[in-house]
Write a structure and sequence with these properties.
Length: 327
């Protein structure tokens, strides 16, 4: 982003551009969002003593039980089963709420980032106005991300409930929100807040990993080729996702309906313990495939769209200013 654009475009311009890019990017890959959420909330219980899958008991001795939820073995398997059971619309369940959440989160993030950055710079000496350290930039981004989560996490909670509900039980955005409040109180709309606040470190990990990998793989090289920059960006995003995936899975678990017979989870540590107890340690990384695919595609599409929307807004803003100046 050039200094001329920074000086010319107001905060709301960056906020709207970021929200627009995020909505378009997430709408493009939304089925991957459904799949990664379904994979992350499913629990296949095993015999903890032997480590094997529980064998069914004698049907005559077994009490009638609710039907087991669909189990998915992979991204392709999930897409096929959702499409077969719910039709194409099943791959877009909860999409309106999700896009509202994406738009509000990104709008809030870019707006708050501009706000806290401007305030921080106002406290610095004029000489340092255009030169923030990496630590300062990352800290400001973390503060903006935390503020954005505080204001927008209720939409994420409601969307997760919609994505993990059976088609027959699925309700619209407002009805699902009322259902959450009725079951868990108003605080239920902020389920997973702690995990969400911790996850604001994801961009910091991505940026740090990018710099470390660049120094290790391309030492002394000042200008990278496009494929080199893309490779480093994908690699750093992958490392950040691997580092934070257990928290991502725990956050989804907190925001979704708990498994049958399990009380509402109270913390992301409790969710992780439950998953490890019933499925093993590696299950903290379930859904990592679509999570990576979605993250890389969304990040690329978001930034590509955001840059172009900013340019359009910049031209419109300058045109409006010139018209008013003539008057």
């Amino acid at each position: 982003m050039s200094l001329s654009k920074e000086a010319a475009l107001p905060a709301w311009g960056y906020a709207v551009a970021g929200a627009t890019g995020a909505v378009l990017a997430n709408a493009t890959v939304y089925p991957l969002d459904i799949v990664k959420t379904r994979l992350q909330v499913q629990v296949k219980k095993r015999n903890v003593a032997t480590g094997g899958v529980l064998e069914p008991e004698d049907p005559e001795k077994q009490a009638p039980a609710a039907p087991e939820p669909e189990h998915y073995t992979s991204t392709i398997d999930a897409i096929q089963k959702i499409r077969h059971k719910e039709g194409i619309s099943g791959l877009y369940a909860g999409m309106p709420g999700s896009l509202i959440g994406v738009a509000s989160t990104n709008f809030a993030y870019f707006y708050w980032y501009t706000f806290v950055r401007t305030y921080y710079l106002s406290l610095q000496a004029a000489a340092a106005a255009n030169s923030l350290s990496t630590v300062a930039e990352l800290s400001l981004g973390a503060v903006a991300g935390a503020l954005a989560q505080l204001f927008t996490i209720p939409v994420a909670v409601v969307t997760t409930r919609q994505q993990t509900s059976e088609k027959a039980d699925r309700k619209d955005l407002l009805a699902t929100a009322k259902e959450v409040v009725a079951a868990d109180g108003w605080t239920g709309l902020w389920s997973g807040l702690k995990a969400s606040l911790v996850l604001v470190v994801n961009p910091a990990i991505t940026y740090g990993a990018y710099q470390r990998c660049r120094e290790g793989l391309f030492p002394g090289k000042k200008n990278l080729k496009p494929w080199e920059a893309f490779f480093l960006g994908a690699l750093s995003k992958a490392l950040a996702t691997f580092a934070t995936q257990p928290l991502i899975v725990a956050k989804v678990g907190l925001q979704s309906t708990p498994p049958p017979g399990q009380k509402k989870f109270k913390s992301f540590v409790e969710v992780m313990r439950y998953i490890v107890h019933h499925e093993g340690l590696l299950s903290l990384y379930k859904g990592i495939g679509p999570q990576l695919m979605k993250g890389l595609l969304v990040q690329g599409l978001l930034m590509m769209t955001k840059e172009r929307v900013e340019l359009v807004f910049l031209l419109m803003y300058r045109y409006i200013l010139q018209r008013f100046a003539k008057k």
